[in-house]
Design goal:
single chain, alpha+beta, SH3 type barrels, 2 helices, rod-shaped
Length: about 110
């Protein structure tokens, strides 16, 4: 029983609550401190938090400091967002599976007694 509880707890803790979404440079979905992943035209990618954005460039902050990226060098932009569906869907599914396993184990224990 303890193993099932530990397994259930770990699966809820390590679940992915975030999703990524491709956006256009001109979209009005950008917010300060938002986590972005920008793919450049030379196929390299840059991750960081949004500092500022205007018509000509976007500025990201990451561990190495800030990086200014001109608009013409950007191939695509991904925004990391919190996903309510993934969070509650996965947690509900995990609870349903754990409950089913518990019921089956109890039925086997009753049948064997």
């Amino acid at each position: 029983m303890k193993k099932i509880t530990y397994l259930l707890t770990l699966s809820i803790i390590f679940q992915s609550c975030m999703s990524t979404k491709f956006v256009d440079y001109n979209d009005d979905v950008f917010e300060d401190q938002q986590k972005l992943r920008i793919t450049l035209v030379d196929r390299t990618s840059v991750k960081g938090q949004l500092v500022s954005k205007n018509e000509t460039e976007i500025v990201l902050a990451n561990d190495g400091g800030t990086k200014t990226i001109p608009r013409e060098q950007i191939s695509n932009i991904k925004i990391k967002q919190f996903s309510v569906g993934k969070t509650f869907g996965f947690a509900g599914g995990t609870l349903a599976v754990a409950g089913s396993i518990l019921i089956i184990a109890l039925l086997f224990a009753i049948a064997g007694a």
